[in-house]
Amino acid sequence: MLKITKDTTLGEILEKIPQAAPIIMKYFHGGCYQCPGMRMETLEMGAMLHGHDVKEIIAALEKVMQEGQET
Predict the structure, then answer these.
(1) CA–CA distance, 16 with 68 (Å, rounded to integer)
(2) How far apart are CA 4 and CA 48, in angstroms?
(3) CA triple 65-62-24, angle to 5 deg
(4) 5: Cα separation from own chain's centroid
């Protein structure tokens, strides 16, 4: 299982946790899916650029991961 930190890239999250897509869309909108930088852009960088709290996003992603394990 992927350990999500502020240094995890958006591309890595989407690749390893497909069920995280709605969370990425909520905070970063659709542009991330077409952006070549998603393989290099960290969660912290994206949060800063979009005006969000990285800790809030990590908590939302961890919740999605936990829910995926319960099913």
Answers:
(1) 12
(2) 17
(3) 85
(4) 10
Q: Is the pLDDT of residue 60 over 90?
A: yes
- Find where tokens 């992603």 sit: 61
Task: Locate all alpha helices (DSSP H) within 1-71, ordered by sequence.
Answer: 10-16, 21-28, 31-34, 43-50, 54-70
Assess contact for 61 and 52: CB atoms under 8 A.
Answer: no
Both tokens of residue 48? Answer: 């800063």
Nearest to 35 by CA among 51, 56, 50: 50
Torsion over CA: 49, 32, 5, 53 (sign): positive
Token pair, residue 31, equals 């542009």
Q: What is the pTM of this model?
A: 0.84
The tens digit of pLDDT for each residue in 15-54 reads: 899 899 899 888 887 666 667 777 888 999 989 988 999 9
